[in-house]
Amino acid sequence: MAFFSTIKKLWGGDTAAATPAEAQAQPGLQPDLQAGQPAGQEVDEQAPTQPEAAATNEAQAPELSQAWRDALATSLSAGRAKISQWLGILLTDIDSAGPELWARLRFLFATLSVPEAEAEAFVNEFEAWAWAMRLQKPEDIRSELRYRLILALDLEQEQEERTNIFKKFAQGLAQTKARFATGLGALFGRSGGLDDAFWEELEEIFIMADMGSEATQKLIGNLKKRASSMAVTEAARFREVLSAELEAIFPLPKKPKVAAAPEVVMMVGVNGVGKTTTIAKLAYRARLQGRKVLIAAGDTFRAAAIGQLEIWAARVGAGIFSKAEGSDPAAVAFEAVDMAQREGFDLVLLDTAGRLHTQVNLMEELRKIKRVLEKKHPGAPHRIVLVIDATTGQNALSQTKLFHEAVGVDEIVLTKLDGTAKGGVMVSVAITHRLPISFVGLGEKMEDLRPFVGEDFAKALLGQSR
Description:
Blueprint: H1 66-76, H2 83-90, H3 99-111, H4 116-132, H5 138-152, H6 159-172, H7 174-189, H8 196-208, H9 213-229, H10 238-248, E1 263-268, H11 275-288, E2 293-296, H12 303-316, E3 319-321, H13 329-343, E4 347-350, H14 360-376, E5 383-389, H15 394-407, E6 411-415, H16 425-433, E7 437-441, E8 449-451, H17 454-461
Parallel strand pairs: 1-4, 1-5, 2-3, 2-4, 5-6, 6-7
Antiparallel strand pairs: 7-8
């Protein structure tokens, strides 16, 4: 899936073949122009209105110098995708999101043989977003444009972007790493073998990192087996054993089998974990990858929850389905999928009430929603995603257990990793329940929800370079 249906990738030596996308770009809804504040802030009812014209037409576009055109074309034809270099050229002497930037983006897409209508959709949506979110600082414009281009051009797996994500991940794990560092540093630096005293000290370090007793015991057992298989008997070499085990314990998310659109993703979790903003970030990400997204406001217990999703849907260019407060959540799910089928949406993100995992009647309601979805759209929900908050430590582990028992969780999204020293709960969840972590939250911005990679976690936690 990609934002553009065809693109000529000039980098990497491929100058001829156009890459087909699985679906054409879907022009999104215009952002709610009263929802102009960044994530985490209240909506400003007095926010300025958007200019009448969403884009600058060619007659008004600034003239681009031949030297600038040549510089960009040369960079695009390099052996690898040089994302930072492209951005440097695109944003040279740019201090605001305006006509000069739009003209440069149009030239970029024309050079890559992107269909004109799709290029215009990208530019217009970026312009609307920049206005609604009040992107004024050059660094904010750069950050937002980078994320959009990475996803639209399918560059997330390129080496430069992988390194960029790893740096963000390492920053997000800084507090957790600090909790590990002192104990592990002393442990790895000691002389001698892997005796009982070594294992007891390692166990204490894991428990102090909020891994929990059960997960710690399983991890210690795994590490003993791995050390034996790797023929490591000295403490000085144990870092490589621990790194290899941490990389191995995180299962990869399974690709859902979707026989017919839409794919339905059911989002579950307790109050306060960041489920609403996670839905918005997932919708935003999917939109930038060219998907037509419908958000279903299934938390009908709170009018505020419905209102928040309506605002976020408008901001990110997604569709929204909602009913009145107090409506049957299962009916919301049923009718949302019906709407998605009629109107050609290919992804439905279904919110559910942020219930307490101890409330049996509410957990039963989740089962009801799941049954209704299965009857309405065979195979749905294709994924059940549990959102947990890294700052809650072992509470997140108990939530995972009960939600998994109730409805069968497929994936975990871990939020607020950048604000806690309790990142060890990731290991607990993975080793106890064998559930994949698909995304981690590394900050408040839309681009701060990033795919989780076990190898990156291990290296960042142990202070290794990628």
